Amino acid sequence: GAVVSQHPSRVICKSGTSVKIECRSLDFQATTMFWYRQFPKQSLMLMATSNEGSKATYEQGVEKDKFLINHASLTLSTLTVTSAHPEDSSFYICSAPTHGSQETQYFGPGTRLLVL
Amino acid sequence: SQQGEEDPQALSIQEGENATMNCSYKTSINNLQWYRQNSGRGLVHLILIRSNEREKHSGRLRVTLDTSKKSSSLLITASRAADTASYFCATAEDSSYKLIFGSGTRLLVRP
User: Beta strands B99-101 and B85-92: pairing type?
Assistant: First the structure.
């Protein structure tokens, strides 16, 4: 069964609104989670590393004020897309290192965001 | 930024044939991993090969790694229609567990 869940799976919002996406690790704790963005037929682009109890680490070119990340507990990280615009429409995927080897990752099923 | 490129970008084969996908990367790595993604879904880990390994097998999967050429290949033998998916290589540079993904290969296995 799924070990990392995301909610919602799909969201449609109006331009200018904010959208929160949740990523949960099921039955295991994740002090670190990762957020990726994927455009159609393209690869995953790492956006940021979410760290439990501390600030997220953002990749170059990712606006931290636009993509707010909160990792308030050992099983939950949230990504908030603030003041969303149509160009933010994408597939957002989170992942967490596996609780076994830590080298591989469990991925969530993704959240498809459409900004009108 | 993306670590490297995969080729081919797309591959269409008949069921039963073998599929080979190649991945190139740019920096030194700790390990290289292959993941599979069904359309519109999350990724599933397939296999990991460490920088000091040259070849690894898992069921119908065979992965090679050439660190001198900074390249890896994934071979799927006796393909099945259910193997239809996108396949991505991902590299880990260090112990931070951060993965950088290649551009991916879209595989279509025709029944």
Answer: antiparallel
Convert the pLDDT of each residue in B51-106 to its tens digit. 999 999 999 999 999 999 999 999 999 999 999 999 999 998 776 778 889 999 99
Which residues contact residue B41 at a Cβ distance below 8 angstroms, ignoring those fewer than 6 apart?
A109, A110
User: In this predicted model, what pLDDT tens digit does every residue of B17-61 receive, in sequence order?
Assistant: 999 999 999 988 889 999 999 988 889 999 999 999 999 999 999
Query: Cα dihedral sign for A104, B79, B19, B38?
Result: negative
- Which phi and psi (to 5°) does residue B7 adopt? -145, 150
Q: Which two tokens stand for residue B22?
A: 């190649």
pLDDT in tens, A81-98: 999 999 999 999 999 988
In this structure, the dihedral spanned by the alpha carbons of residues A49, A52, A55 and A61, taken in order and rounded to 10 degrees, is 10
Which of B42, B45, B100 lies closest to A104 in CB terms?
B45
Which residues from chain B sit within 8 angstroms of residue A109, using beta carbons? 41-42
Residue of B57, B59, B58, B35 whose CA lies nearest to B45: B35
Residues of B with CB under 8 A from a CB of A: 1-2, 30-31, 33, 35, 40-45, 48, 88, 92, 96-104, 106
